[in-house]
Design brief:
This protein is an alpha/beta fold. The protein is built from ten helices and nine strands. It is 44% helix and 16% strand. The strands form two sheets. A seven-stranded mixed sheet has the order 1-9-8-2-5-3-4. The longest helix is centred in the C-terminal third of the chain and has 25 residues.
């Protein structure tokens, strides 16, 4: 059976529904909204067969990989995702109540001292939006996200309505070309940072990917973030913001593999970078098992042919 690419999955939840939930939060607060969310998430859990099965597969693979992790339910996974969405809206609504604690303070100090911006590579993990009010203080520059906006258009429309400046911090890579590359280079030169999610293969047919073991099984990983860092010749860091209790912890890890190498050496360097990324992502999932939000068949390859291509 052909597996659909994640970008072919339709966004669930209407713009009107998201606006209603955000309004309820402003009026009644988060505790009351969680009660209202329970039947809503129950509906999405029951009707979302693909997402439900993907969650079960992920949690089963995680426990096989690390038997110390307790057995967790997919329904809790869905509820955790809803909590993260709510925190995103709260953060973009300019609410200062979300506490973020940066870990790896020496690394952050080094980043603030740089003459250029850096590339942060993350995943659909935790909630980086939680620290959006503290980005400049922590990172030393504005954070810009490269993303495919079509897949989450309703959520993005709501965030733009709540915080108009959001639009200026998004770089749509639906049609990545020379103009986008120039824009990224300019932002990096002005000590602004670039954030990229690397745990999904972009929907472009020319996107290259590498298969690597993740939680005990081979999985496809895109290479675009690492190719970009190699071209721009700037440092690359893995980044995650994981919820621990009532606050978020901001984790950072520098990629030790050198990407500023000759074109002949680039293929091996990028393969090593993907390997390091997969290992890093495993550790993040072990830290916060319910906070990886890839609700699609991650280990099953869609119909993409550019495996292990040259760079």
């Amino acid at each position: 059976m052909k597996v659909k690419h994640w970008s072919e999955q339709k966004e669930r939840g209407s713009l009107l529904g998201l606006r209603f939930l955000f309004l309820l939060h402003r009026v009644f607060g988060k505790t009351a909204l969680k009660i209202i969310l329970y039947p809503i998430i129950t509906y999405f859990f029951i009707t979302g067969k693909v997402a439900r099965q993907a969650s079960k597969e992920y949690l089963a693979n995680l426990r096989k990989h690390n038997s110390k992790i307790e057995k967790l339910s997919s329904f809790k996974h869905f509820m955790q995702f809803a909590d993260a969405i709510l925190d995103k809206l709260v953060a973009w609504g300019d609410d200062q109540s979300i506490e973020v604690e940066p870990v790896d303070l020496e690394e952050w100090e080094q980043i603030r001292k740089l003459d250029t911006g850096v590339i942060f590579v993350g995943a659909h993990l935790g909630n980086l939006d939680a620290c959006r009010n503290q980005t400049v203080d922590i990172m030393g520059g504005r954070l810009n996200a490269l993303m495919f906006t079509e897949h989450a258009s309703n959520f993005i429309k709501l965030v733009k309505n709540i915080a108009p400046e959001f639009e200026h911090q998004i770089i749509d890579v639906e049609t990545l070309g020379p103009e986008t590359a120039i824009l990224i280079q300019q932002k990096l030169e002005h000590k602004e940072h670039i954030f990229i999610l690397a745990d999904r293969i972009p929907p472009r047919q020319d996107e290259k990917f590498i298969e690597h073991e993740f939680l005990g099984r081979k999985a496809p990983f895109g290479t675009g973030a690492f190719v970009l860092a190699a071209i721009m010749k700037v440092p690359l860091y893995f980044i995650s913001t994981l919820k621990q209790g009532n606050k978020y912890q901001l984790y950072l890890q520098r990629l030790e593999t050198r990407l500023d190498v000759t074109r002949k050496e680039r293929t091996v360097a990028i393969e090593n970078a993907v390997k390091n990324y997969a290992k890093w992502l495993e550790k993040q999932c072990e830290k916060a098992p319910l906070q990886w939000y890839n609700f699609y068949p991650f280990w099953q390859n869609p119909n993409i042919s550019n495996k292990n291509a040259e760079y």
